[in-house]
Amino acid sequence: MPERALALKRRLRDGGVAIGAFLTLADPAVAEILAGAGYDWVWIDTEHSPWSLRDLQTSLMPFLRTATVPIVRVPWNDHVRIKQVLDAGALGIVGPMVRTVAEAEALVAACRYPPVGVRGFGPRRASAWGRNIEPYMAQANEAIFVMPQIEDWRTAEIIDEVLAVQGIDGVAIGPNDLSGTVGALRQHDHPKVKGSIERIIATAKARGIPACMGIVTAPERTAELAATGVRMILVAADVGLLVGGYDRALSAARGAAPAAAAEVDV
What we know:
By secondary structure, this protein is α/β, with parallel strands linked by helices. The chain has one domain: Alpha-Beta Barrel (TIM Barrel). About 45% of the residues lie in helices and about 15% in strands. The chain has an 8-stranded parallel β-sheet with strand order 7-6-5-4-3-2-1-8. About 40% of the residues are buried.
C-alpha cells in the first residue's frame, strides 16, 4: 500500500501536479464511485462530517487496488485518532488548525514510528492484516503523507519556521477559517486574508513544498494555480456534485416543461 504514497511524493518533489477530490459522505458506495474515477489523491474529511472509524475503514477499502492516495483530515491533531486512522489504512493525514511550530512537530511525530516519532505500533488493516507487516514497517515512516493545514493569519506570519519542520510533505490552507481569524469570515479577497494566503503559498514554493488551497477550485484554474505553487488541487466534492447536479436537472426540467393552462373564468 505505501508505494502509492511514495509515488505521489516523488511526483510532487519533481514539480508535478496532483489532482484530487473531496470525499465527505460516509457511504462506501460514494467511496467506491470516487475510487474508480482515477484521481491522484482524495481528501477524506472526517473533521466536518459524521464519520466513525468503522465508516472510515469501510470507505478506504475501495481505494486498495487503485493508484489513488487516500489522505484523511482528522477532526483534530490528536495522536490517538491519527494512529487509528493510519492503522485503518489511510496513507496520509491532514492536520487541521496547525498554529505553531510545536504543533507541526507533534503532527509529524504522530505519523511516524519511533525513533523519529511517537506512533504506536499496530498497523492492522494498513499491513494487510499482518500479511505485509515487514514491508509496511520498512516504508511507513517515509511513505505517510503529512500535511498541516494553516487556518490562522498569525501562523502565516511564522510560516517559514513552520514549514522548516522536517517531515512535512505538503501544506494545506483553510481560507474560510483563516478569514475568520481576521474577522472577515469567508471574505477571501480581504487584503489581510489574501496577503496571508499568498505568503503561505510563496513560502511553500520557495521550500519546494506543494501547497493545497483546501477548497474546491475550478478545474480550468489548474495551470494558473500550479504556477503559483498550489500543486495539490482539489477540483470536485461529492456533496457539491450532488447538489449542483440535482439543482441543474430540476431547473432544466422546469424550464422545458409546458406552461400550465391559464384558468378561465366562467
